[in-house]
Amino acid sequence: MKRYLDDRVRSDLRQKMVLLTGPRQVGKTTLSQQLLVEQPSAQYFNFDVPAHRAVILAQSWKQSAPLLVLDEIHKMAGWKSWLKGVFDGRAPEQQILVTGSARMDTFQQTGESLAGRFFKLRLHPLSVREWCDATSASPHAALTHLLARGGFPEPTLAAADTDAARWRTEYFSGMVREDVLEFSRLQEVNAMRLFADMLRSRVGSPLSLASMARDLHLSPATLAKYLAILEALFIVFVVRPWHRNIARATLQSPKVYFYDTGLVQGDEGARFENMVAAHLLKNVQWQQDTRGQAADLHYIRTKDGAEVDFCLSEGDTLTHLVECKLSDTKPHHTLVRFAEQFEQAQAIQLVRECKAEADMGGLQIRDAATWLAGLEV
Hints:
By secondary structure, the protein is α/β, with parallel strands linked by helices. Helices cover 42% and strands 19% of the residues.
């Protein structure tokens, strides 16, 4: 299946090294294998494979390989300095693709800088647009399918719902068990798994780490660390309140969503909101990674409890206000309020079961499936 980043990776490799990250099993290896097929002399090495690790450490791959794919090398001590040397000493015209299932910026706090040597790209689960392009499904059919399957390639392409459910059970337990050990101690794995499981039923609500810490008999600081680990591993992503003063925004309660909508435990409304959040993040990060735009994803909540699900920004300017509804086409009063306050922003009420779209002053009532299918990626 062709993915939305395929052509961009090819283009960027002709200029610099590419660091491709994203959740485990989101399609990075498949994308790499497609590139390897196109260049038969290319070579692929995964740091998790002992035989491959030996080649990586000895740098004994073919120096004439037109493409070198290095997977999971962020697990190697001093990987950044090592990679800098590999890139600077590579054969002329050799392309280097580095892939990993953890955020590379998490590992870029110390050591050599790779500045100027790479392009960063983040691969996300399948979107309504991607599924429509791949299968010729209607936007409504695509959204229904993705809400049921979650958006990761294997469960989305599975022949039966039971196959997708079996994949997800193993994915979640294995992800927490294995990947968390990169960041944490063995004795913390059970607590981390319980915390991640609790988050599945708190999607879309402002998160109180203090309250959860009391339930788990842990400190809020410990849960904040666990949340950062889950973010770094592309298990969850955090949406923070909009505020021009970034420091104030980080102090307010975040909302947490899962990259895999299938992991959400809740009603249809929670799963729909998570799906919209994942689509918005995918498009925001596409703009960041491919254009260098200062785009970002937030939500708005005031002291009196008025809230709009999402807002998009460009620098310190709001560009979009987005509210999610399952079937209610009556204008959401808080969305109307903020649309009047932020006149420059496009106010959109996305309705899952929309009988009729409408424009009401500065507010647009839109069919969710059609609108999501119209996003760039």
